[in-house]
Amino acid sequence: MKPAAFDYIAATTIDMAIAALAAAGGEAKILAGGQSLVPMLNFRLLRPSVLVDINGIADLANIEETGSDIRVGALTRHYQLETSAIIARHFPVLSCAMTHVAHLAIRNRGTVGGSLSHADPAAELPMLALLLEAKLRIASASGTRTLAAREFFLDALTVDLGSAEILTEIALPKLPPRTGWGFEEVARRHGDFALAAVAATLTASDGAIAEARIALTGVGPTPVRAADAEALLVGHALEDGLAVRAIDAVRASIAPESDLHASSDYRRHLAGVLAGRALAAAWQRANASAA
Amino acid sequence: MIAPRDITVTVNGAAYQAAVEPRLLLADFLRHTLGLTGTHVGCEHGVCGACTVLIDGDSARSCLMLAVQANGKRVETVESLGRIGQMSALQESFREHHALQCGFCTPGMLMTATDLLKKYPLASDDDIRKGLSGNLCRCTGYQHIVKAIRAVVGK
Question: Where are the domains of chain A?
Fold first, then answer.
């Protein structure tokens, strides 16, 4: 239970980190919060030749508001996100979701960039990135590129990120006024990875749903949006019959795996129940907000 | 052989300089290099919480940090809280409420509780239980640990 030997580079700039990653030719790993990486090193599931520690890079842990979005630096810790006043004002669904991420000692260290790049199929942050339509800024030796969250998650633990690229920042577009939210998760124990979780936003306009977003995690190799259910909802008020049809559409859109923790049928059923609760909460909040 | 790195770390108020191999875990540095065996090592993959310490005041698993990452940081271990005959209020509450039996999880419980008490109101016992969900105890059933922390909330 000790890591195999590796070399260690403490990067102080993004350029320095990118150069170190490129020089290692795919044999390096980025060390950010280390909360997923170090267990894999301890188990020797990973044996990188070099760790590039990005914790010393300045200005990579800021949360900033612009006119149209909120920019979150990749080194922002989960606890920072959980307690940020800017996040609470613009994305209370994200503040709520963060309290479900692991435990305080993990949230103190774990980072936004690390969680998204690791892409655990049952993690909360990738689902929230999909829900909030995050734009991911990725730096490499050839410059920077920007990718939508829906293009980033490719498969379980697999993202569109090269071995000499670093996710540096995510931009979360602000939500329209009169947008309510809901977040529901079931895990065996508080802080464990979700058996299933659902995050939803509904935007109200003249008593009807103008925009609906429903994201799920724990029900497939990557987080997903329930596009069919979203389309069903738009243009109507959320009454009971519509909610049932939306729940059915959510269940029809996923094919969860069975594993030690829960069967496929249980997860599909659970996802529907949680979606129903999240939509009800979102609709109530959308109509309660004065803005 | 990877060259050792020189680090300077403040542990429980005292400055230490050491040359460490990059792969050395902070938990092993504290226990083996410094001889501070109050920090316990259970699962070595971030699940049991026994190795929890404070890094610049924030709780962290010392099995999920490298010693080299502690360079320039302030580390506090259970030894910083108090000693027999001079225990901290939290330690005294653990004693009073029988919040430990074998004691293996206790250092991690104490350091986790220290950070929880600082950051959260812990208004309900449920909040305390959620806060302790990353620290495993196989003896007490947690009830007495919850009571011990409850007794010092707001003090």
Answer: 7-53, 63-173, 179-288
CA distance A63 to A85: 10
Contact (CB, 8 A) for B121 and B127: yes
May I ask the CATH architecture of the domain A7-53? Answer: 2-Layer Sandwich (3.30)
Tens digits of residue pLDDT in A168-210: 999 999 999 999 999 999 998 888 889 999 999 999 999 999 9
Note the pLDDT tens digit of each residue in A213-269.
999 999 999 999 999 999 999 999 999 999 999 999 999 999 999 999 999 999 999
Nearest CA in chain A to B28: A2
Residues of A in contact with B22 (CB under 8 A): 5-8, 51
Rounded to whole angstroms, the Cα distance separating B81 from A180 reads: 45
Q: Can you tell me the distance from the alpha carbon of A132 to that of A149, in angstroms, rounded to the nearest whole number?
A: 9
* Residue B85 token pair: 């005959």
For A130-146, write each residue's pLDDT tens digit. 999 999 999 999 999 99
The answer to whether B44 contacts A190, with C-beta atoms less than 8 Å apart, is no
Q: Which of B22, B45, B49 is facing A39, going by the closest CB pair? A: B45
CATH number for B89-150 (one of 1.10.150.120, 2.30.30.240, 1.20.120.1730, 3.90.1150.10): it is 1.10.150.120
